[in-house]
Amino acid sequence: MNVAFSMARDANAKLHVLSVIWLPKAAESAELRGVLDDQRDRFERYFDSVRGRAKQGEVELETEIAVGDPAALVIQVADKIQASVIVMGKSGHTVLHRWARGSNTERVLKYSHCPVMIVH
Question: Domain residue spans in the chain?
């Protein structure tokens, strides 16, 4: 997040932070409500700290929570807001997870209309 803040501040650009809740296809509806509520609460708490940092650094900030396929949503939102760059963290998923679902980062790199910066 430090890199994204620095880039936005230096370019006098708006920072759009997207958090995606991915739900397993086999989840039951009761499970889904609980998972969604927990994840939304967690992201909103995170966004509170991000908003504080943005205010201190005088960075215009927009936050968004979406539910679905992370890579597809990152690409869709980037297209919708006409992002000039996507800054993503490198996730630490297992080999089995990447094999089963694919790498979100790799998919965004492959299909995005704009440059993608991966931050480790």
Answer: 1-68, 70-120
Architecture of the domain defined by 70-120: 3-Layer(aba) Sandwich (3.40)
State the CB neighbour count (10 A cutoff) for residue 59. 22
For 39-52, the pLDDT digits (tens) are 999 999 999 999 99
Q: Which is nearest to 73 in space by CA: 62, 84, 65?
A: 65
**CA-CA distance, 56 to 35, in Å (whole number)?**
32
Residue 9 token pair: 């501040």
Residue with token string 């989840």: 27
Q: What's the CA gap between 82 and 113, in Å, rounded?
A: 9
CATH assignment of 1-68?
Answer: 3.40.50.620
Q: Which residues contact 3 (CB under 8 A, 6 or more apart)?
A: 87, 117, 119
Return the higher-pLDDT residue of 38 and 94: 38
